[in-house]
UniProtKB/TrEMBL annotation:
One of its GO terms (biological process) is rRNA processing. It comes from Anopheles epiroticus. This is PIH1 domain-containing protein 1. Belongs to the PIH1 family. Involved in the assembly of C/D box small nucleolar ribonucleoprotein (snoRNP) particles. Recruits the SWI/SNF complex to the core promoter of rRNA genes and enhances pre-rRNA transcription. Mediates interaction of TELO2 with the R2TP complex which is necessary for the stability of MTOR and SMG1. Positively regulates the assembly and activity of the mTORC1 complex. One of its GO terms (cellular component) is R2TP complex.
């Protein structure tokens, strides 16, 4: 499939063609539960995803505007496993972004991307070879090698490349899961654009009242994948969500989030979409991702962090139903 992304802090498009080949060995077979445990335990060497990343190249999008694209190849069996979605695919996408940044210093905006539904490839795939030494490195990293793995290792003494996806030699990048405290946020492909609201410091002595008579709590529906990541690697901050007025048509949502370990607003990232609130304080280990049953007016969102009470208050006007 093809991912449409943007270079961070720009409008420049960047496409990733995720493709498959038998010439790259698969990562060891793990379940989503085991991946969560790995993230939770902070074992960066416990799981690797072998992949080959081509150099970004210029191309034209459907509007005939200039952009860049690269191809990333993974093992066919692993591709089949992640194609339908789920935690492994969301994690893989995060690793793809990391790989492009680490190898070619291209920083992509993780808050603004989507998987294209009607286009599986941008431009034409670039050929590249898979080297024996790289394949061998991956297989030797398996904690439990099968008979097939051992047979393949013996075949790697052959000087010819094991498998070829083309003709241009390039060493595959072996991506490792990052430290649990720095695991990147999982994205939702249906929420491709969000407005980032800067957090402002409010040094008022008075705290935020959570028992106001003009607001009543409303339920939210969490994203199951994001919840899995937040449970694995982050702390979910205490939060309350209210609507104003309490009866009739809602005009505004008020969110209150307790972040006791945060010292200033500079540690907080708040992304508000039309129906989604994503709050991160990565260095302090906080992550909250919620969906609401209202259409938020993103252009009028305001946020204030009280350094005394450690409460972030977010005011979110909503469109009339």
């Amino acid at each position: 499939f093809c991912i449409k992304a943007f270079k961070k802090d720009t409008e420049e498009k960047f496409f990733i063609n995720l493709c498959q080949t038998d010439g790259i060995p698969p990562p060891r077979d793990i379940t989503e539960d085991e991946l969560i445990r790995i993230l939770n335990d902070g074992e960066p060497n416990a799981f690797r995803i072998p992949m080959s990343i081509t150099q970004p190249r210029p191309t034209l999008d459907k509007s005939n505007q200039g952009c860049q694209v690269c191809d990333i190849a993974i093992n066919t069996k692993f591709y089949d496993k992640i194609e339908s979605g789920g935690l492994l695919r969301e994690f893989l996408i995060s690793v793809l972004f990391d790989g492009v940044e680490n190898k070619y210093n291209v920083v992509l905006d993780e808050t603004n991307f989507r998987i294209l539904k009607n286009k599986k490839v941008m431009d034409k795939l670039i050929p590249h070879n898979i080297q024996n030494r790289d394949v061998k490195q991956v297989i030797e990293s398996y904690p439990h090698q099968s008979a097939e793995d051992r047979a393949l290792l013996s075949e790697l003494d052959n000087p010819q490349p094991l498998g070829s996806v083309g003709q241009q030699a390039r060493k595959p990048l072996i991506e490792e899961i990052g430290d649990a405290g720095t695991v990147k946020t999982v994205k939702n492909e249906t929420n491709s654009s969000r407005t980032t609201t800067p957090v402002q410091i409010n040094n008022a002595e008075a705290g935020i009242s959570s028992s106001s008579g003009s607001a009543t709590a409303v339920p939210y529906v969490p994203d199951p994948t994001k919840v899995a990541i937040s449970q694995a690697a982050m702390k979910k901050p205490e939060s309350k969500l209210f609507r104003e007025p309490p009866a009739g048509k809602a005009k505004r949502l008020i969110g209150e989030f307790l972040l006791p370990e945060c010292v200033s607003s500079s540690e907080i990232t708040l992304d508000v979409g039309e129906d989604r609130i994503l709050l991160e304080a990565r260095k302090k280990g906080y992550l909250l991702d919620v969906f609401v049953d209202y259409r938020i007016d993103e252009s009028k969102v305001e946020a204030h962090f009280d350094a005394t009470t450690k409460i972030l208050q977010v005011s979110m006007p909503v469109f009339a139903a």
